[in-house]
Amino acid sequence: MSGLNNIEMVIEEKKEDGVDRQKVCPFLLRVFVSSNGHHHKISDYSKGTVPENELQIYTWRDATLSELAILVKKVSPEARRKGTKLTYALVYPDSRQPVYRLRDIGSTISGQKGPEDLKTLGQARFTIGDYMDISITPPEHWNNSPRKNFANSYNNHRQRQY
Protein backbone atom coordinates (compact mmCIF):
# COMPACT_ATOMS: atom_id res chain seq x y z
CA MET A 1 0.00 0.00 0.00
CA SER A 2 2.94 2.35 0.39
CA GLY A 3 3.10 2.61 -3.41
CA LEU A 4 -0.24 4.45 -3.43
CA ASN A 5 1.32 7.43 -1.71
CA ASN A 6 3.51 8.03 -4.76
CA ILE A 7 0.62 8.28 -7.22
CA GLU A 8 -0.11 11.76 -8.50
CA MET A 9 -3.56 12.72 -9.63
CA VAL A 10 -3.85 15.02 -12.58
CA ILE A 11 -7.18 16.73 -13.05
CA GLU A 12 -7.76 18.55 -16.30
CA GLU A 13 -10.55 21.00 -16.81
CA LYS A 14 -12.01 20.38 -20.24
CA LYS A 15 -14.46 22.46 -22.22
CA GLU A 16 -17.87 20.92 -22.77
CA ASP A 17 -17.00 20.24 -26.41
CA GLY A 18 -13.23 20.06 -25.88
CA VAL A 19 -11.13 18.13 -28.36
CA ASP A 20 -7.70 16.60 -27.85
CA ARG A 21 -6.02 18.42 -30.72
CA GLN A 22 -3.02 16.09 -30.52
CA LYS A 23 -5.19 13.04 -31.23
CA VAL A 24 -8.13 14.33 -33.27
CA CYS A 25 -7.59 15.22 -36.92
CA PRO A 26 -8.78 18.74 -37.87
CA PHE A 27 -11.41 19.30 -40.55
CA LEU A 28 -11.53 21.82 -43.37
CA LEU A 29 -13.63 24.90 -42.63
CA ARG A 30 -14.45 26.89 -45.76
CA VAL A 31 -14.70 30.56 -44.78
CA PHE A 32 -15.98 33.38 -46.98
CA VAL A 33 -15.03 36.87 -45.85
CA SER A 34 -16.87 40.02 -46.83
CA SER A 35 -15.25 43.41 -46.17
CA ASN A 36 -18.33 45.53 -46.88
CA GLY A 37 -19.96 45.13 -43.44
CA HIS A 38 -22.60 42.66 -44.68
CA HIS A 39 -22.73 38.91 -45.08
CA HIS A 40 -22.78 37.49 -48.59
CA LYS A 41 -26.21 37.04 -50.13
CA ILE A 42 -27.59 33.56 -49.61
CA SER A 43 -28.00 33.31 -53.38
CA ASP A 44 -24.16 33.37 -53.60
CA TYR A 45 -24.34 29.85 -52.13
CA SER A 46 -26.67 28.27 -54.64
CA LYS A 47 -26.43 25.67 -57.39
CA GLY A 48 -22.97 24.51 -56.39
CA THR A 49 -21.46 28.00 -56.35
CA VAL A 50 -19.83 29.87 -53.50
CA PRO A 51 -18.46 33.42 -53.18
CA GLU A 52 -15.02 33.96 -54.72
CA ASN A 53 -13.00 35.07 -51.69
CA GLU A 54 -12.52 31.74 -49.93
CA LEU A 55 -10.28 31.22 -46.93
CA GLN A 56 -9.59 27.58 -46.02
CA ILE A 57 -8.91 26.85 -42.36
CA TYR A 58 -8.13 23.50 -40.77
CA THR A 59 -9.64 23.51 -37.29
CA TRP A 60 -11.59 21.59 -34.64
CA ARG A 61 -15.10 21.80 -33.15
CA ASP A 62 -13.71 23.48 -30.03
CA ALA A 63 -12.23 26.39 -32.04
CA THR A 64 -13.49 29.70 -30.68
CA LEU A 65 -14.63 32.78 -32.54
CA SER A 66 -11.56 34.64 -31.25
CA GLU A 67 -9.29 31.90 -32.67
CA LEU A 68 -11.02 32.29 -36.04
CA ALA A 69 -10.59 36.08 -35.78
CA ILE A 70 -6.83 35.66 -35.33
CA LEU A 71 -6.63 33.58 -38.50
CA VAL A 72 -8.78 36.05 -40.49
CA LYS A 73 -6.60 38.97 -39.31
CA LYS A 74 -3.52 37.23 -40.71
CA VAL A 75 -4.90 37.44 -44.25
CA SER A 76 -7.27 40.44 -44.07
CA PRO A 77 -5.49 43.69 -43.11
CA GLU A 78 -8.82 45.52 -42.76
CA ALA A 79 -9.77 43.16 -39.89
CA ARG A 80 -6.70 44.12 -37.84
CA ARG A 81 -7.76 47.67 -37.07
CA LYS A 82 -8.78 48.18 -33.44
CA GLY A 83 -12.54 48.36 -33.05
CA THR A 84 -13.29 46.43 -36.24
CA LYS A 85 -16.25 44.10 -35.82
CA LEU A 86 -16.22 40.57 -37.23
CA THR A 87 -19.66 38.99 -37.44
CA TYR A 88 -19.88 35.22 -37.92
CA ALA A 89 -22.66 33.25 -39.58
CA LEU A 90 -23.06 29.60 -40.46
CA VAL A 91 -24.25 28.78 -43.95
CA TYR A 92 -25.82 25.34 -44.04
CA PRO A 93 -28.06 23.31 -46.35
CA ASP A 94 -31.76 23.27 -45.54
CA SER A 95 -32.79 19.68 -44.79
CA ARG A 96 -36.22 20.10 -46.44
CA GLN A 97 -35.40 22.17 -49.53
CA PRO A 98 -32.45 22.34 -51.94
CA VAL A 99 -31.34 25.75 -50.61
CA TYR A 100 -28.89 27.13 -48.06
CA ARG A 101 -29.76 29.02 -44.88
CA LEU A 102 -27.67 31.58 -43.00
CA ARG A 103 -27.68 31.82 -39.19
CA ASP A 104 -25.74 34.43 -37.19
CA ILE A 105 -23.68 32.86 -34.43
CA GLY A 106 -21.83 35.80 -32.87
CA SER A 107 -19.30 38.57 -33.26
CA THR A 108 -15.89 39.70 -32.04
CA ILE A 109 -14.27 43.13 -31.96
CA SER A 110 -10.59 43.60 -32.75
CA GLY A 111 -8.66 44.80 -29.71
CA GLN A 112 -11.55 44.23 -27.27
CA LYS A 113 -12.69 41.27 -25.23
CA GLY A 114 -16.31 40.35 -25.65
CA PRO A 115 -18.89 37.86 -24.39
CA GLU A 116 -18.83 35.76 -27.58
CA ASP A 117 -15.04 35.49 -27.96
CA LEU A 118 -14.96 32.03 -26.36
CA LYS A 119 -18.01 30.66 -28.18
CA THR A 120 -16.98 27.47 -29.99
CA LEU A 121 -18.07 26.01 -33.30
CA GLY A 122 -19.60 23.13 -31.33
CA GLN A 123 -21.66 25.53 -29.21
CA ALA A 124 -22.84 27.19 -32.41
CA ARG A 125 -24.09 23.77 -33.63
CA PHE A 126 -21.60 23.70 -36.49
CA THR A 127 -21.73 20.56 -38.63
CA ILE A 128 -18.82 19.45 -40.80
CA GLY A 129 -19.69 20.60 -44.32
CA ASP A 130 -21.23 23.90 -43.22
CA TYR A 131 -19.63 27.11 -44.47
CA MET A 132 -18.63 30.11 -42.35
CA ASP A 133 -19.51 33.59 -43.61
CA ILE A 134 -17.62 36.41 -41.86
CA SER A 135 -18.54 40.05 -42.28
CA ILE A 136 -15.89 42.68 -41.49
CA THR A 137 -17.22 46.07 -40.40
CA PRO A 138 -14.84 48.99 -39.68
CA PRO A 139 -15.46 50.82 -36.38
CA GLU A 140 -16.76 54.00 -38.01
CA HIS A 141 -19.59 52.05 -39.65
CA TRP A 142 -20.87 50.08 -36.67
CA ASN A 143 -20.08 52.45 -33.77
CA ASN A 144 -22.65 54.93 -35.04
CA SER A 145 -25.46 52.46 -35.55
CA PRO A 146 -28.75 53.41 -33.85
CA ARG A 147 -28.84 50.05 -32.03
CA LYS A 148 -25.43 50.62 -30.41
CA ASN A 149 -26.36 54.18 -29.42
CA PHE A 150 -29.60 52.85 -27.92
CA ALA A 151 -27.68 50.22 -25.93
CA ASN A 152 -25.18 52.81 -24.66
CA SER A 153 -27.88 55.27 -23.59
CA TYR A 154 -29.85 52.47 -21.92
CA ASN A 155 -26.78 51.26 -19.99
CA ASN A 156 -25.82 54.83 -19.00
CA HIS A 157 -29.38 55.47 -17.83
CA ARG A 158 -29.36 52.29 -15.70
CA GLN A 159 -25.99 53.22 -14.16
CA ARG A 160 -27.31 56.66 -13.14
CA GLN A 161 -30.33 55.12 -11.40
CA TYR A 162 -28.24 53.19 -8.87
TrEMBL record:
<protein>
    <recommendedName>
        <fullName>18 kDa Sin3-associated polypeptide</fullName>
    </recommendedName>
</protein>
<dbReference type="InterPro" id="IPR042534">
    <property type="entry name" value="SAP18_sf"/>
</dbReference>
<comment type="similarity">
    <text>Belongs to the SAP18 family.</text>
</comment>
<feature type="compositionally biased region" description="Polar residues">
    <location>
        <begin position="142"/>
        <end position="156"/>
    </location>
</feature>
<dbReference type="Pfam" id="PF06487">
    <property type="entry name" value="SAP18"/>
</dbReference>
<dbReference type="InterPro" id="IPR010516">
    <property type="entry name" value="SAP18"/>
</dbReference>
<feature type="region of interest" description="Disordered">
    <location>
        <begin position="137"/>
        <end position="162"/>
    </location>
</feature>
